[in-house]
Write a structure and sequence with these properties.
There is one protein chain. This protein is α/β, with parallel strands linked by helices. The protein has helices spanning about 30, 50-60, 70-80, 95-105, 120-130, 145-150, 175-185, 200-205, 210-215, 245-255, 265-275, 275-300, 320-330, 355-370, and strands spanning about 35, 90, 110-115, 130-135, 155-165, 190-195, 220-225, 240-245, 310-315, 330-335, 335, 345-350. Helix 7 links the parallel strand 5 and strand 6. Helix 2 (about 50-60) runs antiparallel to helix 11 (about 265-275), helix 4 packs across helix 10 (about 245-255) and helix 12 (about 275-300) runs parallel beside helix 14. The protein starts with about 25 loop residues before the first helix and ends with a helix. The protein binds pyridoxal-5'-phosphate.
């Protein structure tokens, strides 16, 4: 392997010496044995049986490029949300969309307002684009600070990234707070709401961010949601963006992969969308296991942040790195927080009851062992 630190003239300065990054990598031992995957905020349940049937029924179509507009599903989402069909587009997960949403707004030196800590992917996108980022600290409960975000907008700001519920904290904004962001973000700033955990927020009684933007925002906005989390389809890569105008969607579409979604994925997402009873079961089991994790942490004297999502974050009384490593050696994968100053935080994704048991038992033993 060539691990030279000399800059390579044909790679942009912000992309030099990136190191290898693959959070989904399975170690050789993890491929065969039991692994408690509690680090990537996946759904531990398989998708609805109807989704699996739809995949089977459409598998023979993979010799063709699909209609990347996902017309049938787009119609349904349009009918459910009131967003016109030409203001909706699809990506290989919302991750593909979020990179390109920032890209469509930002040239080197342009301003972004974003919360910190926030999902790590955003930092990579901002730095690769040489964005001038105003990092706005999240509040003590882990939610985005609406007043801080609004105050951080300046003359150079092109886009505000608002993540609710936020990752890695799990906390959401209230209806009044989303409304404030919608109304007070300057009209020449693209307001981007990442609602990857939207369904969890709704189940917990939280607001519909999209509906609030539709009702109250005069300036431009875009919202992303995903089938990865609440519909148990992370591996199929289906996310969608909805915007207030077709120009934003057309620009986004021009930046996303030409052949980014498959007929199989569209059919699967359609089946998932129509099986809301199954999606509700996912919400119920997530809430039950989340409660068990929060209670189990509390019994160890650890106070988790208030999460409505399929993950929970909590502060330890020591650096999290060695604890995360010790858990990994027991085949339990959990995550830390990437940002400086948060090295004592762990983030654990909600799993099956046996994952919860394994996590709580191992954490207690590791912490007791000092
Ligand atoms: C806040 C947030 N946005 C977007 C994503 C991307 O998810 P996907 O690409 O699977 O839709 C994630 C994944 O964990 C996330 O936490």
């Amino acid at each position: 392997m060539d691990d030279t630190l000399e800059p390579l003239p044909y790679i942009r300065p912000t992309l030099q010496n990136m190191g290898s990054w693959n959070p989904t990598r399975l170690l050789p031992g993890e491929r065969s044995g039991i692994v408690h995957r509690m680090d990537l905020n996946e759904c531990p349940l398989p998708p609805s049986p109807k989704v699996i049937e739809a995949i089977r029924d459409h598998a023979h179509l993979v010799n063709r490029y699909a209609d990347g507009g996902c017309p049938e599903l787009t119609e349904k989402i349009s009918a459910a949300t009131g967003v016109p069909v030409d203001c909706i587009c699809w990506g290989t997960g919302s991750a593909e969309l979020l990179s390109n949403i920032v890209r469509l707004a930002i040239a080197p030196g342009d301003g972004v307002v974003a919360p910190t800590p926030v999902w790590r992917r955003f930092h990579g996108v901002f730095s690769s684009l040489e964005a001038d980022v105003a990092h706005v600290d999240i509040r003590d409960d882990g939610s985005v600070d609406p007043d801080g975000m609004i105050a951080a907008c300046g003359g150079k700001t092109k886009i505000m990234v608002c993540v609710t519920p936020n990752n890695p904290s799990g906390a959401m904004l209230s209806e009044a707070e989303v409304r404030k962001v919608a109304e007070k973000t300057p009209d020449d700033v693209l307001l981007y709401l990442d609602e990857a955990y939207y369904e969890f927020a709704r189940f917990a009684g939280g607001p519909d961010g999209l509906a609030i933007l539709q009702a109250h925002r005069k300036g431009p906005w875009i919202v992303t949601r995903t089938f990865s989390k609440a519909y148990a389809m992370a591996g199929l890569r289906m996310g969608y963006a909805m915007a207030n105008n077709v120009h934003v969607i057309n620009a986004l579409r021009s930046l996303t992969g030409t052949f980014n979604v498959s007929a199989m994925s569209e059919a699967a997402a359609l089946a998932a969308w129509e099986d809301q009873a199954y999606a509700l079961r996912i919400q119920e089991t997530t809430a039950t296991e989340r409660r068990r994790i929060v209670d189990g942490l509390e019994e160890m004297g650890i106070e988790a942040l208030p999460s409505v999502t399929n993950f929970v974050s909590a502060p330890l009384d020591r650096p999290a790195g060695p604890v995360i490593q010790a858990m990994k050696e027991r085949n339990i994968r959990i995550a830390g927080w990437a940002e400086e100053g948060y090295g004592h935080m762990i983030r654990v994704s909600i799993g099956l009851p046996e994952d919860t048991d394994a996590f709580l038992t191992a954490l207690r033993e590791i912490l007791d062992a000092g």
